Amino acid sequence: MAEAAKVIENSQRDINIAFVNELSKIFRLLEIDTKAVLEAAGTKWNFLNFSPGLVGGHCIGVDPYYLAQKAIESGYNPEIILAGRKMNDSMGSYVATETVKMMIKKGATIKGSNALVLGITFKENCPDIRNSRVIDIIKELQSYHVNVDVYDPWASSEEVKHEYKLDLKTEISELKSDYDCIILSVSHNEFLKLSLADLKADNCVIFDVKSLLSNEKVDARL
């Protein structure tokens, strides 16, 4: 019973995040700021406060699959649980694809362009890279033949190399000054101190997955 309670708690969070992730996709099409809408909705006392984003880690991104598997083994098809998982697992690819679309609109040549992904851990201000869905952003960008640098002062370069086969940048001095796009994927406190102006090329696209920066400083947010 205790294990079941833990699994449904994580599954509930996963489904709630999937809902706001879907809202963010809808509001992007409507050209509405998702964060502003959620803040307004949050003024109602019983509104559940969740934010859109990537869902990884060793609990929320995994436990729903355990529950779904047990349900299937018992002869039940868990539609909502799997729908939530499908939505959340799509977000990394979605962020990368939307970024590429914005780069094209700004006249960028995608093949051979330079991208900077800020953060590889599965959540902010921690070194844990287990089941980080940032890798989905990176792989999708690489599928367009974009050169991707990944900077994270919290993560271990050895662990990232072993787990994801990536050469991690851990010092600001290792970064370029002409990135065609910058994706802020994890809201580490250190990223608030970064001077993006020193890192971006002309017409650089900045996608703030975690809405860490003010709206006027970025091209898009979830």
List the helices and strands and how they pair.
Layout lengths: L1 H28 L4 H8 L21 H11 L5 H11 L1 H15 L8 E5 L15 H10 L3 E5 L5 H8 L14 E6 L15 E9 L11 E2 L1
Parallel strand pairs: 1-2, 1-3, 3-4, 4-5
Helix pairs in contact: 1-3, 1-4, 5-6
Structure description:
By secondary structure, the protein is α/β, with parallel strands linked by helices. The protein folds into two domains: 2-89, Orthogonal Bundle (N-(1-d-carboxylethyl)-l-norvaline Dehydrogenase, domain 2), CATH 1.10.1040; 92-221, 3-Layer(aba) Sandwich (Rossmann fold), CATH 3.40.50. The chain has seven helices and five strands. The chain has helices at residues 2-29, 34-41, 63-73, 79-89, 91-105, 134-143, 157-164, and strands at 114-118, 147-151, 179-184, 200-208, 220-221. A five-stranded parallel sheet has the order 2-1-3-4-5, covered by helices on one side. Strand 1 (114-118), helix 6 and strand 2 (147-151) form a beta-alpha-beta unit. The N and C termini lie far apart (36 Å). 38% of the residues are buried.
